Amino acid sequence: MTFLVCSTIFWSLLASLLMLDFCASMDSLNQSQSMSEDETLISPGGKFQLGFFSTDNSSKRYLGIWFYDIRIRTIIWVANRNKPLESSPGLLKIEHGNLVIQNHSGQAIWASNTQNLSSSSTTAKLLDSGNLVLKYGNSESYLWQSFDHPTDTMLTGMKVGWDFKAGMEKQLMSWKSALDPSLGQFSFKLDPSGFPQGKMFEGNITRYRSFPHFGSVHAAFSSAYIPKLVNGSEGAYFSYDLRDKNTLQRYLLNYTGKLQHYIWMIQTLDWMLLYELPNDSCDEYAKCGPNAVCVEAKSLRTCKCLPGYVSKSAEGSDTLNPWYSGGCTWKSSFNCSGPEGFKGVKGVKLPDLLLFEMNTTMTLKECENFCSRNCTCTAYASTSESTDKDKTGCGFWFGDLLDIREANDNYRTNEIFIRVIASELEGDSKRTKWVVAVAVVLSVSSAMFCLWASWTRRKGQGANVDVHAEEEENFELPVFNAVMISQATNNFSCSNQIGKGGFGHVYKGELPNGQEIAVKRLSETSKQGLNEFKNEVMLIAKLQHRNLVKLLGCCIEGRERMLVYEYMPNGSLDSFIFSTMEGSCLAWRRRFNIIVGVARGLLYLHRDSRLTIIHRDLKGGNVLLDNKMNPKISDFGMARTFREDQLLEKTKRIVGTFGYISPEYAADGIFSIKSDVFSFGVLVLEIVCGKRNREFHHPDHHFNLIGHICRRGNYGSRGKHMS
Ligand SMILES: *[C@@H]1O[C@H](CO)[C@@H](O)[C@H](O)[C@H]1NC(C)=O
Ligand SMILES: *[C@@H]1O[C@H](CO)[C@@H](O)[C@H](O)[C@H]1NC(C)=O
Ligand SMILES: *[C@@H]1O[C@H](CO)[C@@H](O)[C@H](O)[C@H]1NC(C)=O
Ligand SMILES: *[C@@H]1O[C@H](CO)[C@@H](O)[C@H](O)[C@H]1NC(C)=O
Ligand SMILES: *[C@@H]1O[C@H](CO)[C@@H](O)[C@H](O)[C@H]1NC(C)=O
Ligand SMILES: *[C@@H]1O[C@H](CO)[C@@H](O)[C@H](O)[C@H]1NC(C)=O
Ligand SMILES: *[C@@H]1O[C@H](CO)[C@@H](O)[C@H](O)[C@H]1NC(C)=O
Ligand SMILES: *[C@@H]1O[C@H](CO)[C@@H](O)[C@H](O)[C@H]1NC(C)=O
Ligand SMILES: *[C@@H]1O[C@H](CO)[C@@H](O)[C@H](O)[C@H]1NC(C)=O
Ligand SMILES: *[C@@H]1O[C@H](CO)[C@@H](O)[C@H](O)[C@H]1NC(C)=O
Ligand SMILES: *[C@@H]1O[C@H](CO)[C@@H](O)[C@H](O)[C@H]1NC(C)=O
Ligand SMILES: *[C@@H]1O[C@H](CO)[C@@H](O)[C@H](O)[C@H]1NC(C)=O
Fold it and tell me: Does residue 297 share a domain with residue 413?
């Protein structure tokens, strides 16, 4: 018995000693050795481990490298990503000097494939940098290294780009999915045409372009690492250095199509995302089309034409999808004979360096001269990294300018000088007056636009719109993507429906940034609704008042027409004043505030805004209450604008809601601001009495509420009718 115990202890001790010894020695592999599936190599400092792994319980196994001393297995390199071992076990060995993975039947399923080896006595070694290298004995130079064949991860010391000497391109290629290391759709590489810049592709489509940097070191925007862009005779590549050599970091092209930089946090024992790109919708490559600037605010994208440019599609016939392919074009046809100048646009990511030239010795003034002499030169900018006044060095763009965005805080901003005709330079005291264009949020095929102002102006009378504002007035409204709205409202689910109007349904939703919205979705069939929709978009976009509901944006995509408003948590006034429910009763103070608020909103519409607007459908249902019970007038589908000198208008089509329509409007179709005042009066009575005008019943007579009040001729008895 004692013997048995002793022997067990002895053997386990021996085994662990052997294990220790084995582990310590196994950082390399030579001709006479091989590594089976349950063995691994560990780098001398214990930072990385090489071995076989599988991503799930499947029988597919891969040879890979991962961080050794952290809890979460993080794979940074995969050898046989497209050819896993299946069913039977595999072996890593050196064969004729090359690293080879053999399957059970001895066939090579992967090999390092280095040619012209002078001898077969090579050694493979896993280094503390995470690099697996193949070399002759103790030689310093590598015959092959895993850093030359990246998977989806770049570690410090790795270079992504071009090795001119070896004629080799190194790029990151994403996994197919979280559990599938095989070749995914995304790649990140250095585009060496023009000045080298990093680009991320999905298939062969550019998805993201890194900020161009012209010095050899990027601006320092991270405290954790120093990114580098090197253009030399040996190669052009992108890499990074760690500020603190003891940190673990990785730069990953995620299968989700994001470039991510992670750092290992000892405090949380987890990876922390330092940044990811593309991070917002303006990061997406050239989504605004040529010659436009992308501006992102509150997770909404807007596109603006560069100074001197106008939207292409304003003249085009394809009004459905004008903005994606369109972009902007010269405002007035540009010939090199007229007088011209340059206009600066500050704080932007410089355009793609497609047709681009650089001169590092010119001063900014010389650059301007040079660019103005060449008719095809559309812009120039300083390329100097220094903030020095006499900075020299600049770049010139020829042809269309692509992928410009308003820079976010993360980046050094640049000023670019855009070629414009002389008339663009004059009378420009109000800073840059950018013509508006629009945004396209996601899909290439989807058409979205919202430039109703110019559209309806061109279309002439057709629409129920009459804008007397200055022609110059720019109209700018964020455009929402239909998919995004659908997601925000749970696919327009019934549980999100909060209202129903003549034109369609209203849904509650939540944007990715957490903002609550109300979405008014036009029913597809209503032709009349479309005009009213346009009317509403145009009107509300111009109106800003605390007692008017705020329009956040719109969406026109295919047959989908939607308006996106701020969400009013307390719903409509109706539900409060006519509710019979316990506890929904409004205090007098509240009622008073609501009346004053509605009056203010109405006064703004009639008198204080730059347009005179008749709402034509003021009623309890169209007054919404925010979380502090402040009233906001909504629903401008029926509204009309008047010229300043116009007093009334006559119409054959009476719109509005019975009970609120003034007698002269109902009888003769005459409406003016007085019609709204009449409706307001009805509303005030309803608020005070808590009864609907039309549903009012009294045992003594058949009048409605107004009739009843008139009959009584005094307001002393109002308490009697309170709810
Ligand atoms: C291979 O490695 C083993 C153990 O590390 C060593 O004993 C042997 O001499 C090496 N063989 C060659 C050819 O280098
Ligand atoms: C993998 O195996 C574990 C335990 O062996 C099990 O809990 C898990 O559900 C399996 N996962 C899959 C995807 O089969
Ligand atoms: C080994 O690989 C070869 C070629 O891919 C294949 O034909 C063979 O079936 C594999 N053998 C085993 C045991 O997996
Ligand atoms: C290998 O050697 C052959 C002949 O010496 C040469 O033509 C070939 O370019 C070499 N290959 C490499 C990858 O160096
Ligand atoms: C991109 O790939 C698609 C499909 O693979 C192909 O049809 C198209 O021609 C390619 N475009 C370019 C510019 O290579
Ligand atoms: C990059 O380096 C190569 C080789 O030194 C040089 O020919 C090329 O002009 C450089 N490109 C730029 C944009 O400086
Ligand atoms: C890829 O990105 C997702 C979402 O950001 C993240 O959960 C996942 O961990 C990333 N993949 C890797 C390998 O880090
Ligand atoms: C994305 O951009 C926002 C705004 O610039 C920034 O606050 C945030 O940190 C960024 N997120 C990542 C993961 O880079
Ligand atoms: C060029 O354009 C300017 C103004 O844009 C115009 O005055 C001039 O006549 C044009 N010249 C030619 C040759 O078209
Ligand atoms: C840069 O500009 C200077 C001054 O105009 C000129 O002498 C030089 O040749 C230019 N260099 C290149 C590469 O064009
Ligand atoms: C203008 O610049 C382009 C691009 O460098 C060049 O091809 C063209 O010859 C230049 N034209 C003139 C008139 O200098
Ligand atoms: C919304 O619809 C899409 C596609 O029809 C579906 O994939 C998704 O799961 C739906 N989401 C919800 C919350 O119902």
Answer: yes
Letter for the amino acid at 396?
F
pLDDT at site 225 = 84
CB-CB contact of 49 with 68 (8 Å): yes
Residue 498 sits in a domain of what CATH number? Answer: 3.30.200.20
For residue 74, give its domain range.
22-149
Low-confidence ranges of the chain (pLDDT < 50): 1-25, 216-220, 316-325, 427-475, 715-723
Pairing of strands 235-242, 144-145: unpaired
CATH, residue 94: 2.90.10.10
- Same domain (yes/no): 515, 617: no
From 617, 645, 676, 700, the catalytic residue = 617
The count of structural domains within the chain is 4
Q: Which residue has the tokens 């063995």?
A: 39
* CATH number for 665: 1.10.510.10
Domain contains 106:
yes
User: For ligand 3, what atom is nearest to the CA of residue 86?
Assistant: 14
Residue 434 forms part of a structural domain:
no
Closest Cα partner for 506 from 492, 525, 488, 486? 492
H-run or E-run covering 22 = helix 2-25
Pocket lining: 88 vs ligand 12, CB cutoff 6 Å: no
Query: Binding-site residues for ATP, please?
Result: 520
Cβ of 466 closer than 6 Å to ligand 10, yes or no, is no
DSSP element (H, E) containing 596: helix 588-603
What stretches of 435-554 show up as alpha helix (H) in DSSP? 452-459, 482-488, 527-542
For residue 495, give Cα distances in angstroms to 499, 511, 523, 560, 693: 11, 17, 18, 20, 31
State the pLDDT at residue 23: 39
State phi, psi for 15 to the nearest 5 degrees: -60, -45
Domain co-membership, 328 together with 420: yes
Distance 395 CA to ligand 6 centre (A): 14
102 CB less than 6 Å from ligand 3?
A: no
Number of neighbouring beta carbons within 10 Å of residue 404: 26
Same domain for 291 and 353, yes or no, is yes
Indicate whether 35 and 139 sit together in one domain. yes
Atom 3, ligand 3: which residue's CA is nearest?
107
The predicted structure's pLDDT at residue 649: 79
In terms of DSSP H, where are the helices of 383-474? Answer: 422-425, 452-459
Question: Contact 567/573 with Cβ under 8 angstroms?
Answer: no
For residue 82, what are its two tokens? 């497209």
Q: Is residue 660 part of a domain?
A: yes
* Contact partners, residue 430, CB within 8 Å, separation at least 6: none
Instruction: Tell me: do 530 and 599 sit in the same domain.
Output: no
Concerning whether 617 is annotated as a catalytic residue, the answer is: yes
Q: What pLDDT score was predicted for residue 707?
A: 74
Are 379 and 418 a contacting pair, CB within 8 Å? Answer: yes
Ligand nearest to the CA of 80: 3
Strand partners, 552: none
Distance between CA 262 and CA 277 in Å, rounded? 12
**Residues 394 and 296 placed together within one structural domain of the fold:** yes
DSSP-H helix ranges across 410-468: 422-425, 452-459
Q: Decide if 389 is inside a domain.
A: yes
Q: What is the reported pLDDT for 528?
A: 53
Q: Cα(379) to centroid of ligand 10, in Å?
A: 18
Q: pLDDT value at position 218?
A: 47
204, 207, 285, 444: residue to mutate for ligand 5 pocket, most atoms within 8 A of CB? 204
